[in-house]
Amino acid sequence: MSEAAGRPRWQLVSAWLLSLVASLWLGVMQLDGGWYGFQIHAGELSFVLSIYPPLTISTLWVLCIGYAWGASLAYLTTFMVGMLSGLPVGWALVFAFANPLGLLVMAQVYQHVQVSYLPRTLPALMFFITISFISGIASATGSFIWSYYNDLSALGAFQAWQGWWAGNFLQTVVTCGPLLLLLAPQLMRWRQQHWPRFGQAPAMGQRWAWLVALLSLAGVIAFLWLSFMLADRSVMALPGSSAQQWQQRAMLYRDSAMSVYWVMSVLLFAMVFLGYRFFTQRTLQLRQAAERVAYERDLALRRQGEAEVARNALHQLNQELAARIREVELLQAQLREQAMRDPLTGLHNRRYLHQRLPALLLSAQTAGPQLCVVLLDLDHFKRVNDQHGHATGDAVLRHFAALLLAAVRPADGVVRYGGEEFLLLLRGYPTEQVDALLRGLQAAFAASSFAVPAGQLSGLSFSAGITFGGSVHDSQDALLQQADDALYQAKAAGRHTWRQYRP
Question: How far from the centroid of its chain's Cα atoms is residue 408's Cα?
Fold first, then answer.
């Protein structure tokens, strides 16, 4: 523990030790001065008051610092007073619990009822007076031990009991009230600064509330019974039957009845005030609970609305994302298609060929029918470009590509192999059908004409090489090489014709 942190604790312990010394000294002074009781006359009412100065110090410690600090002062001082008064150690140990018992009642009530113990307002002052009265009654149990040990008469026991609780009550109100107004704010600020959680009370549960109510009821019943019992015994103990003695008995009954009257009045006020405080606190708790439930409901609704908005936004984003994904997939498909298309003729290119041909060949090898590969080359196409320009050459290539697409089935493949070379992938074509296809293409191409600066370009032709595949020994490269060899044979034969590959 650091020096700065330990200084407030030592200050508190030092103040408690000084208070203990002061309480013990005041207790000794009380015994030496004979402050056991003072006879008080208020009109026709006569009663006894007992003064006990250490009670004021203990009460201030209980209210400002904590019950344990004040109760220990009260116990040690009362124990010393009992020992100095001649009580045996055992009786003194029990006798010393009287004032801590009354202080316990005060501490518990203030701990669980939300009322300030500073008597600044009229309700707080009335409540302080009421709790001081109840505390005085609770501490008056020590008078019975005192009366029993000192063998007091019934009248003496009644006066000791009445003087104890009345003295404690008036002493607490008259001395502690002003001192609390003067000292408590500074003490509370000091305590809050050094120990913020010191002395905080937990909320009283329903069972404890019922227990306190039952104990309070039992205390009221016990008080009434003791009042009447002690008064009755005191009256019966008076000797003689003269008029003056009967008058004394009547006065004693009247004094007892008046004390009970005032006690019951205060208790009635206490019950009404406590009931009102309980009702207001309960109403406040219910209102706070309702506000908390309403706040949590509004918060839940707001969060639900926010979640619904977020869910709708997320759904919209998912839809937009799905649309973007479809667009990307479409673009990717278009890019893949464009990557496999010849930009001039729109036919598939060699990349498509190298992807498609192995699959067609495998299908022909496993399930049939055989695959026919036809490689076509436009005759003297370089002369067209040189004499009529590349634009005319491009027009011829596009026209020939359109003739090829029109001549074959949709499932057949038409590929621009490179330059003026084209390739057909035909499934299930016999030799005769291939010959008929090529004759039709040759006739259509020869009949085509193209406008050129010098007039019309017509009479074009092509050469072709044909091969068939489907054997397990066939491969993509072998078929393309065979078609190329057959094309070379057609060109060697004078062009404008086609040849089938012969091994």
Answer: 72
337, HSE (Cβ side, Cα atoms, 13 Å): 8
> What is each CA distance from 15 to 24, 77, 399, 458, in whole angstroms?
14, 16, 116, 128
Give the amino acid at 278.
Answer: F
Strands 498-500 and 462-469, by their bridges, are parallel
Beta bridge partners of 42: 45
Is 413 within 8 Å of 425 (Cβ atoms)? yes
Q: How does pLDDT run across 2-36, given as a tens digit for each residue?
A: 444 556 678 778 888 898 888 888 878 877 766 65
In DSSP notation, 192-212 reads: HHH-TTTTPPPPPPHHHHHHH
CA distance linking residue 114 with residue 119, whole number of Å: 14
Gap between the Cα atoms of 117 and 177, Å rounded: 9
Between the alpha carbon of residue 19 and those of residues 52, 58, 60, 240, 265, the distances in Å are 15, 8, 10, 50, 35
Measure the CA–CA gap between 359 and 469, rounded to whole angstroms: 12
Do 142 and 170 form a contact (C-beta atoms < 8 A)?
no
Q: Provide the pLDDT for residue 200.
A: 45
Lowest mean pLDDT among 24-33, 45-54, 360-369, 472-481: 45-54
> Per residue in 340-361, pLDDT tens?
788 899 899 998 998 889 988 8
CA angle 133, 139, 141 (to 5 degrees): 125
Distance CA 311, CA 204 (A): 45
